[in-house]
Amino acid sequence: MKVIYEPRFNYQLGVLKYLHPFDGEKFAKVVSELDGLNIEIIHPNGPISTKVINEYLNELMRKLVLSKTLVLRALEVPKIPFVGFDFLDKKILTPMRLAVAGTLLGAEKALESGGIMWNLSGGFHHASNLNMEGFCIYNDIGISYQQLRKSGHLSETDKVLIIDVDAHHGNGNAYSFKDNENVHLLDVYNEDIYPTSQFTRNRVNFPVPLKSGVEGCEYLEKLTQALELITGHYALAFVIAGTDVLAVDKLGGFKLNVEDVAKREKIILSHLKTLEIPTVVTGGGGYSKQSASAIAAAIKACSTL
Ligand SMILES: [Zn+2]
Fold first, then answer.
1. How high is the pLDDT of residue 304?
2. Domain that holds residue 160
3. Which of 104, 111, 236, 254 has its CA 20 to 30 A from that of 279?
């Protein structure tokens, strides 16, 4: 297993960090917790290009992603009159485009090696080719899939699995792949919170809707039951390992602890390894102070896979 990280993944927001509960430095904290563990870290060469992003977005979205007002709305921060688009692009959108490059790199390396690649960022599962919302601007998995098809890493008939264990339903991925029968979704989400679209929830092949307040034991049991429905024949799996399932998280509504998150990732990745499915893990959401520790614990638990 290799970890994908680069210092520019972090969102260095200055005073703006007080406007959002997001811990913009969490990726650096994870890496510092992995220090001395002999885990190889690789990094993308640079942000994914505008050309590649535009290949994925529909015509209208190509314009909307350049609107300061709409980007700020998607990032769920209030309007900030003294901040220009260039500042947003440098401080938030460039780290996000690096994250997209990280997911694509991870997918390529996973397919080439047959192993597991862990991108600390990415997992922007609320964005799609015609929408951005929920702190997600670019759908890294949709963009990666398109590029992998183009480069020949994946064929038209190759099956792809997306396992989404972020606390929120992955509406952007469900929408992105609504017409692609070769992409299957397993989604464990809090059914009581955003996003509530029944259209995208119905697209999930292996849905695990749970109630607010669910604890680790029940969560892991339901996840394990859903994973047992997965059998082989997938060319590639993406995992969205959001840590907003932690009890201390203000948004997710679940009650998992750091050990539960580590167990969760080990259960998922062990299962995929047994089925010999190359896998790229992406970061997903996770806004609490425990988020970095949970990710580091999960990587440690899975480092020998
Ligand atoms: Zn989330």
1. 87
2. 2-7+19-302
3. 254
Q: Which residues pair with 131 in a beta bridge?
A: 128
Compute the distance from residue 215 Cα to the ligand 1 centre, in Å.
17
45 within a domain of the structure (yes/no): yes
- Å from CA of 304 to ligand 1 middle: 27
Residue 225 within any structural domain of the chain: yes
CATH number at residue 129: 3.40.800.20
Task: Please tell me the distance between residue 89's alpha carbon and the centre of ligand 1 in angstroms.
Answer: 22
* Ligand 1 centroid from CA 250, angstroms: 11
Q: For residue 170, how far is its CA from the centre of ligand 1 (angstroms)?
A: 8
CA–centroid distance, residue 229 to ligand 1 (Å): 24
Torsion over CA: 287, 289, 291, 292 (sign): positive
Interval between CA 151 and ligand 1 midpoint (Å): 30
Does residue 12 lie within any of the structural domains? no
Q: Tell me how many degrees the CA angle 58-20-5 measures, rounded to the nearest 5.
A: 70
pLDDT digits (tens, 9 = 90+) for 38-87: 899 999 999 999 999 999 999 999 999 999 989 989 988 777 777 889 98
Q: Cα(36) to centroid of ligand 1, in Å?
A: 30
Rounded to the nearest angstrom, the distance between the alpha carbon of 243 and the centre of ligand 1 is: 8
Task: Give the distance (Å) from ligand 1 centre to CA of residue 59.
Answer: 27
C-alpha of residue 155 to centroid of ligand 1, in Å:
30
* 0.90 surpassed by pTM: yes
What are the residue ranges of helices labelled H in the chain? 26-33, 50-56, 59-64, 68-74, 85-88, 94-113, 140-151, 171-176, 198-201, 216-227, 258-274, 291-302
| Cα–Cα distance for residue pair 30/294, rounded to 1 Å | 9
Structure tokens at 282: 């992406």
* Grouped pLDDT means (10 residues each) for the chain, 305 residues: 96 70 86 92 97 97 93 82 86 96 98 97 98 96 98 97 98 97 98 97 98 98 97 94 96 97 98 97 92 97 92
